[in-house]
Every structure is written in C-alpha cells, then in structure tokens.
Design goal:
The chain is mostly beta strands and 240 residues long. The chain has three helices and 14 strands.
Length: 240
C-alpha cells in the first residue's frame, strides 16, 4: 500500500470523530496490522504506537518512523519521514467545509445510488480501557477496494466533534468515486456518537485482505510539547 495513501487513511480514521475547542488534547493509540501477502511479497505484522495532539486548527499524529501534521487554517498537510528527515506537502481543499450549518445538517433520506459509505448502529455495548462503548458497523468503498470496520465509540470523553465530522466528510468527498457525496457522507458519520475507542478494519486490496486494529489507550488534556505542530528543523521537502 502506498505510504501516502496509508497515512491519509490513518489520519481520516483517527480524526473523523475528534475535535477540541478550548484546550489541546493528547491521545495515545496502538495500531496493529496483521501480516499479508501482495504481488508476491509478504508484509510482516506491524505494531505502531501513535501519539496524537489536537489543538485549535492544528493536528499532529506521530509514530517512531512517520508523522502527519495538519494545518487547517492554511489548508495544508505534511507527511514526515523521520529516517530521511524529509516531508511531503499536500494541499487540502476545505472550501466546502465552510458550508453553513443549515446546509450541512444530516439528511433523513440518503442518496443510495451515490453513497459508498454506510454506518449501522447496533444495540451492543462493552467497556474498553475504562470507557463504555457502543458498537457500530461501517462499510466503505475506497479507491483501493472495499473496507469493513467494527467500531466501538464512547461519549464518556466530552467533545464537540461535529466540526471534525464536517472536515472528515469534506476530505472523504475528495476521493475518487465519492465526489458529490459530501452531505451523504456527513449523514453517515454522524450516526457514530462520540470518540472511536476501538476499530477493527478489514480492507480488500487486489483480492488480499488487510486487517488493522486500532485501540485508544490514553487520553488527557495538557499543554503540548513546544513545536509539536511545526516542521522539524533540518527536514527538507520531497516532491511526490
């Protein structure tokens, strides 16, 4: 799977339900991907610990090898490769995210012909890492293939997450095959109440299944480390 595509999907899933208005937030999550084979090559199982900081108009998601920085005010995202001390700059078009609240209300009727994202709320609960969670099933057609997710979300962590739902719907609607579906995507994502604590996603790519489990381990509100949202000194831009 291409590195940029993989990281874009990670950022989308990670931040689809999370935002913060008055203070920065810290999340620590663990992402585990099973081993899989594709095009004659076997990818070993992988475990990534991600530190995530969310502030006003800025987001950081980082692991030992790579990080993603999102500057929402200037509409740009940076993907950092720490081994190479390089970064790729990706413009983000959020013009449609400025849609008025009246225009962006979840719809009661969804255009099933154009929609390629579906969320189903189930009457099932369980506790994960101290948070009471409700179960959801999500299916999505992506440019790489179909993806099915079992999601567990909690409302125990108080957030005004609607602005980030709008942002996520806007980003997803930029993907091939999802154009003109922004309101429908927002309506589906709005079915998930609260923060996603655990997700188990199976993606089918070229006939191969890739299974990833992501679990939220820690949350706190705190002052972020100095410069966490800035490009590190000594990193050079790399063209795609």
């Amino acid at each position: 799977m291409h590195t940029l595509n993989r990281w874009l999907m990670i950022v989308l899933v990670t931040f689809s339900m999370i935002t913060l208005v008055h203070a920065d937030a810290f999340f620590k999550q663990v992402q585990e991907t099973d081993a899989f084979s594709m095009m004659g090559q076997t990818q070993p199982a992988q475990k990534i610990v991600q530190d995530i900081w969310i502030g006003e108009n800025r987001i950081y998601a980082g692991s030992e090898k790579q990080s993603a920085l999102m500057d929402l005010e200037n509409k740009v995202m940076y993907i950092l490769n720490h081994a190479e001390k390089s970064y790729v700059k990706m413009p983000l078009d959020f013009a449609s995210a400025q849609t008025s609240d009246a225009e962006f209300k979840p719809k009661t009727e969804i255009n099933s012909q154009s929609l390629k994202l579906n969320v189903q709320a189930l009457d099932e609960t369980k506790e994960i890492n101290g948070w009471k969670c409700h179960k959801y099933l999500q299916t999505m057609e992506t440019m790489m293939g179909p993806a099915k997710s079992e999601l567990w979300a909690t409302t125990d962590i108080p957030f005004d997450y609607e602005p980030m739902l709008k942002l996520s719907a806007t980003m997803l609607s930029q993907q091939p095959g999802l154009q003109d579906s922004q309101e429908d995507i927002f309506a589906e994502l709005s079915k998930i109440k609260g923060i996603t604590v655990e997700s188990i996603t199976t993606m089918t790519v070229m006939g191969n299944e890739i299974k990833t489990k992501t679990t939220l381990q820690e949350f706190k509100q705190a002052a972020p480390p100095a410069g966490i949202y800035e490009l590190p000194a000594g990193y050079s831009e790399k063209t795609q």
